[in-house]
Each structure stands twice: as C-alpha cells, then as structure tokens.
Amino acid sequence: MKSAVHSTLALVLAAGGLLLAGAASAADPAGGGTTLQRERATCDGVQQDRAACLREAGAARQEAARNGLTSPPPRVEEQNATARCSEQPASARAECEARMRGTGRTTVEGSVMGGGIIRETVTPIPAKP
Fold first, then answer.
1. What percent of the chain has pLDDT over 70?
2. Is 110 in contact with 82 (CB distance < 8 Å)?
3. How many structural domains does the chain have?
4. In the predicted model, what is the mean pLDDT of residues 9-30?
5. pLDDT band for position 38 (50/70/90)?
6. Is 45 in the same domain as 8?
7. 90 lies in which domain range?
8. From the CA atom positions of the chain, what is the Rg in Å?
9. Do 43 and 57 contact (CB within 8 A), yes or no?
10. Does 13 lie in the same domain as 37?
11. What's the number of CA atoms in the CB half-sphere (13 Å) around residue 28?
12. Which residue in 12, 36, 42, 72 is a FRET match for 50, CA 20 to 30 A apart?
C-alpha cells in the first residue's frame, strides 16, 4: 500500500512538473525571459528609437517562434550586393562589385545595428616615371 501511494504521488508530481514546464514555454516560446532582457539591453545601446527597437525585437521573436526567420542563400546575397552596384556609373561599377565581393585590399567596418557597414578597397596606383 505504501509503495502504491509513493508511486501515485510521484506520478502526480511528475505530471504537475510537465504541466508547469509546458505553461512556462507557452508563455514565452522564444527562449525565456533572459532573451527578452537581453533584447531590452541591446535596445538601450543602438542608434534607434527604443520603442521601435523593442517593437522590432518583439516581431522578430514572434517570427522566430514560427520558424520564419531564415537567411537567404549566398547566391541571393551576392545578387543583392551586385544589384546595388548597378546604380553606380559604368566607370565605377567594377570597383563597386570588387568591394562587395571583398576582393583585393578590402576592409569592412561597422555593423547594421551601428548604422551601416563601410567597405573600403585600397587600389595602389603606381607612380608615373
């Protein structure tokens, strides 16, 4: 009898634990309160309106919960990068594409969150004799 009571009690406690865990994950499906705290802290250090940053973070969290956040394939990223160069004058287009590909002596600084990515390519020009 004592064994049956212990088994039943263990089963009830285990079921209660599963219910609590399920309720907690349903309340915050995108990874817990620490994610929210981290996002709020990030919004304090960006050059964007804090309310807009928090809205974007919330929208991204919802989309992540639906598995809707994806990265484009590298081919698409390259097409987007070279499409920007098509707006340049023909004389500067090849250099723009080289900067976007990162060829030569190209350096990349900054971040999207910081306001922009700056790509610089240094092209040495030999001195004329």
1. 74
2. no
3. 2
4. 40
5. confident
6. yes
7. 74-122
8. 26
9. yes
10. yes
11. 10
12. 72
